[in-house]
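TASK: fixed-backbone design
INPUT:
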């Protein structure tokens, strides 16, 4: 892939697709295969957690072979050194689990960063430090109701709900105003640790179809106000 991913392009793409895939496993080679399979099923934004063995090699592999219009990033990015290593491996966006120094390091380089936050104070600080969007994590603590309450004082902050989000929960977060949901275990299962890719592909297709259905319903509602 040769397309450079700016913060603006990442946010626009996530708003359009409503999905981010989160690969975390015990085998870097399997993680790369799982990430590519998710892309082949319609996911455009996939992060590979740095806690995965050989994660940087996996990121490089996915960057070199991903379908056009698909982008690979790194998750669990904590330090400025992490940002350097991921960028060298070809990672196109960063994802943090907390208010780590990697937010500032990414923003300073113009690299999109999805910053982990849970509280109102954390969400606000993440954006002031240059985050592209806030990764509400773990979202399952408060559910869609908590996200809606957060958005009331911060309607301009783009939130991505991550943590405990499966096929049955995704729509609730979109309805509460999440620009996207981040999907880890409920999407990949054991595929990033060497498990069968076929069930993961089926789940990926179901998530993509669900997001498309929600987008159509939202567009219809906007075009036909009651």
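OUTPUT:
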């Amino acid at each position: 892939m040769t397309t450079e991913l700016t913060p603006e392009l990442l946010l626009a793409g996530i708003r359009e697709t409503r999905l981010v895939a989160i690969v975390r496993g015990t085998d870097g080679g399997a993680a790369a295969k799982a990430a590519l399979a998710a892309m082949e099923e319609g996911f455009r934004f996939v992060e590979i957690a740095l806690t995965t063995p050989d994660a940087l090699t996996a990121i490089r592999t996915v960057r070199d072979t991903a379908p056009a219009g698909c982008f690979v990033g790194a998750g669990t990015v904590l330090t400025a050194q992490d940002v350097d290593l991921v960028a060298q491996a070809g990672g196109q966006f960063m994802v943090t689990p907390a208010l780590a120094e990697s937010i500032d390091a990414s923003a300073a380089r113009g690299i999109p960063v999805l910053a982990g936050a849970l509280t109102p104070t954390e969400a606000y600080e993440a954006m002031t430090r240059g985050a592209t969007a806030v990764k509400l994590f773990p979202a399952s603590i408060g559910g869609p109701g908590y996200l809606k309450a957060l958005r009331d004082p911060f309607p301009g902050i783009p939130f991505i709900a991550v943590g405990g989000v499966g096929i049955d929960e995704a729509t609730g977060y979109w309805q509460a105003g999440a620009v996207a949901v981040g999907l880890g275990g409920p999407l990949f299962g054991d595929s990033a640790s060497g498990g069968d890719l076929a069930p993961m592909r089926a789940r990926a297709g179901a998530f993509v179809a669900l997001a498309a259905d929600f987008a159509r319903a939202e567009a219809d509602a906007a075009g036909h106000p009651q």
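COMMENT: The mean pLDDT is 96.
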